[in-house]
Description:
Largest sheet: 6 strands, mixed
Structural class: alpha+beta
CATH class of the largest domain: Mainly Alpha
Number of strands: 6
CATH topology of the largest domain: Butyryl-CoA Dehydrogenase, subunit A, domain 3
Radius of gyration: 21 Å
Number of helices: 12
Order of helices and strands: HHHHHHHHHHEEHEEEEH
Amino acid sequence: MTRTEEFEELRPLLFSIAYRLLGSVAEAEDAVQESWLRYESTPTVPRSPKAFLSAVVTRISIDVLRSARVRREQYVGDWLPEPLLADPYEDPARAAELADSVSMAALLLLERLSPLERAVFVLREVFAFDFADVASAVGRSEAACRQLAARARRHMESGRPRFEADRRERAELAARFFDAVRDGDVDGLKELLAADVRLVGDGGGKAPALARQVVGDDKVARVLAAFFPRLATLRVTFEEHEVNGQPGAILRDRDGNVVSTWALDVLDGRIQTVRSVGNPDKLRHVGPVADVWALLSQFRKTRPVTR
């Protein structure tokens, strides 16, 4: 097998590692490309291409993450990860861990870890690397990595998000939710929302977004019920689609351009969180991005729907 073939075979794994470390599709793709350049220029053939490339992409991601954390402290409004429509890496033996670890809730929890803790946790707990390879990847001793892993595990377990295990039930609940949003049905929405549901928006100062999180089933239901029927007059539509392994949707304008993505956390038959990403910089990998400011101008001219 050539180096190119080895790399392409490992590309899904490398991207999945980098995305969980960075929470950014664009930065993860850049990290993977830089890993290829380093692999291609390595004069000796690594004993294990998987171990070598995983270590390289991890080190690159740690460096990017350290600078990204400074930028995120200056971020306008709530910061959410870039939406991921499909995880390219599959491992049937670890399907549950992979799905949970890519959710927005899990990625936001990972944000609270130090870059080293995050790297050790992702390699060890998500991808089941042995401690020797983890230590090589992060440049620490195995003993230090065990301590980092234990500390990260305690933190993650204390706030670990829980989701509805039955994917079919989640999908059915999400379909009912989007139907109720389309209809502007406040009572129908309240039946589907947890009492302490949160509505979170990420515009990054570059797209219209909520000034603050909306909390509570009545408030969230009323905001959503007022929101979409007016947008529908502008021919904005929901395209239901999994986002970060959870039920969600892509909002598109009349030309099919991306307005935002929505991701839902579902537990105990209720929607716990609705997260909307509208920052155009985070949507370019999804497709052509809509001119949301122009859309907002039209939105403001529409009359509220009366029922």
